[in-house]
Design goal:
Layout (H helix, E strand, L loop, with lengths): L15 H9 L6 E7 L6 E9 L5 E9 L7 E7 L14 H4 L3 E5 L38 H18 L3 E11 L1 H12 L5 E5 L6 H7 L5 H10 L4 H8 L4 H7 L4 E6 L7 H10 L7 E6 L8 H15 L35 E3 L1
Parallel strand pairs: 4-5, 4-6, 6-7, 7-8, 8-9, 9-10
Antiparallel strand pairs: 1-2, 2-3, 3-5
Helix pairs in contact: 3-4, 4-8, 8-9
Protein name: Cephalosporin-C deacetylase
InterPro entries: AB_hydrolase_fold (IPR029058), AXE1_dom (IPR008391), CE7 (IPR039069)
EC number: 3.1.1.41
């Protein structure tokens, strides 16, 4: 298979748009609470945020921003964790805030117990009949776990836009693996997203991955359906509402993808299926592939590409005075200091 040109004929349910419009419809304020928390970091301020996710369920997140610019409006990066990982500690994910962005790290409901340092958000909508969240409620799109989590992810973008000190017109979505799948879904459901950065996205070309991948999380679905044979047709129907390829077709934000060509967790075919379906012929998009890497992809080497790419499209520069945030206000350390230099745009396909 020439993976770089791979496209997938992913079925689209006839009520796909209505399903997601109904899922995302939620009256009332999105922000529930914003509280400053100690993080033992002198240059970064962190806040414990709670926002209303699917069904109004409270979803936790860490909101961080450079402490020396607490009185200005900044662009924001919303980040989504990988499968089995929660938001952890406030001092864990510091790349984007260190680059000068406001940063919201969403906790994933019902997750956080596999690796990392845990999470703080239960899933009130879950009725688990197996130990794997990826299978919870898979018999119907209405009850499926990822209906709730994808809705939470979209609501996270709305939440960060409502926070003091954030420019609502400059918000990017970022994620790796499960987080990449969530960010891709957000790009398909939030038409005015400013930018998208995804690496090895999960839940792309799902039917193909289930037939070719024997590692988790896809293998968890396979193991479940090996026992619940009667649910197989319904499960495939449910998953068709969650496929990243379909979300990619609807997305328009500038996008930077990454994949390891030896990835046996989220195969590169799925990433390229989403990338090749993404946007239209004039869409600003690029992909970096790493021939000798697996699920780690380009790792921190690729993060350097991401930083350069996002700086060129959404520089971490203030937009003006911001409303008061809880905690101290320190002002600019160097008033009038120039922002970071622009970056050279990479080719649309880059084999690194």
């Amino acid at each position: 298979m020439n993976v770089e040109h791979y496209t997938a004929d992913v079925p689209v349910p006839p009520d796909f748009d209505q399903f997601w419009a109904t899922s995302l419809r939620r009256p009332g304020p999105v922000l529930l609470s914003v509280e400053p928390v100690p993080n033992r970091l002198r240059l970064i301020s962190t806040f414990d945020v709670s926002f209303a996710g699917f069904g109004g369920h409270p979803i936790r997140a860490w909101y961080s921003r450079p402490s020396f610019v607490e009185d200005v409006v900044l662009p924001a990066v919303v980040e989504f964790p990988g499968y089995g990982r929660g938001r952890g500690f406030p001092h864990e994910r510091l790349t984007w805030v260190s680059a000068g962005y406001a940063h919201l790290l969403m906790d994933v409901r019902g997750a956080g117990g596999r690796y990392g340092n845990g999470g703080d958000t239960p899933d009130p909508g879950a009725v688990p009949d197996a130990p794997w969240p990826v299978t919870w409620g898979i018999g119907s799109p209405d009850t499926y776990y990822y209906r709730r989590v994808i809705t939470d992810a979209v609501r996270a973008v709305l939440a960060v836009r409502a926070l003091p000190g954030v420019d609502p017109a400059r918000v990017a979505a970022v994620g790796n693996s499960q987080g990449g799948g969530l960010a891709l879904a957000v790009a398909g459901l939030v038409p005015d997203l400013a930018a998208l950065l995804v690496t090895a996205p999960f839940l792309c070309d799902i039917h193909h991955c289930l037939s070719t991948v024997d590692t988790s999380p896809y293998a968890e679905i396979s193991s479940y359906l090996a026992v619940r044979r009667d649910l197989t047709p319904a499960a495939y129907d449910t998953l068709s509402y969650m496929d990243g390829v379909t979300f990619a077709r609807q997305a328009v934000a500038p996008a930077c993808f990454g994949t390891g060509l030896r990835d046996n967790v989220c195969p590169p075919a799925g990433t390229y299926a989403a990338f090749n379906a993404y946007g239209g012929p004039r869409t600003d998009k690029e992909i970096h592939s790493y021939p000798f890497n697996g699920h780690e992809g380009g790792d921190t080497f690729h993060v350097a590409h991401q930083l350069e790419w996002l700086t060129a499209r959404m520089p971490p520069e203030p937009a003006g005075a911001a409303p008061d945030l809880p905690g101290p206000r320190r002002g600019w350390p160097r008033p009038g200091a120039p922002g970071p230099p622009g970056a050279t745009v990479q080719p649309q396909v880059n084999n690194t």
